[in-house]
Give the backbone structure.
Amino acid sequence: MTSRTKKTPAARTPKTAPLGALQKAKRATATTPARAKAEPKPKLAPNAAQMAAKAYRLAALDQDFLLSDATRGARFLLEYEKAEQNLRAWGVRSTIVVFGSARVSMSGPERHRYWYSQAREFARIASERGGAKDVADGLRDNVIATGGGPGIMEAANRGAHDAGAPSVGFNIELPHEQGPNPYSTPDLTLQFHYFAIRKMHFAMRANALVVFPGGYGTLDELFELLTLRQNNKMSHDLPIILFDRDYWKQLLNFHVMVDAGMISPQDIDLFGFADDAEEIWAELMARGLHDVPAKQTRKLRSHPRKRR
């Protein structure tokens, strides 16, 4: 009989078993240099939570508090007082307020260019003849005051600048409004959030009001002061001049209100009209604005006067 010999099975290469978590950690330790030990975390002060709390902030430095609904009255006061202090520092006793459209420019249609040039010329005349260039007692009268923006406002501030006189820009914070024009006096270029406080400053020192053609904003400001004038809420008989008869008479028929009994016939006399810069000044003088010769006793400054 032939003997059978058992065949020894060929050696098999064992499959590599998956590494366990412990093996992985050992292999990583063997191939990766030892990491520096993390620095110990600084110990917090026992009152760290109290120090970081909003309640602990100084009220004057806490914007969340200052901009809350509860402090709206305080913001009214701050807007009023900041403007008041700047105006007093420059000795602005009275103003001539100039309203008009922000859409007018020297490169616009012919009519717009005329409005712009006449607003600029009137502001120069008023600044030279009205006392804005600093009289002997250090107080300024009939300083040009505008809404501070482009268009007619820019033209009026520019006219005062041409005369070497200061002028005021009462700017308002709006979503799509440009910044202040480059001609208002920097220390008198103010910004407001609240229309009410801005309108108050327009009215408080106004010796006269000149209204050039404009849109909704110009009409709003015109009727605000007309209403105060009608109801004797001004300290004097504020002269009001509307520039460009044709524009205003086409836009507004005030006699309709008289015929309907909405206003008295004498309310029509609260304002007059003019068609050029010299006529504006003549109308203002005829309605009670006094001509104060300007006596420049010192150069205009770009900063408030120091108290003596």
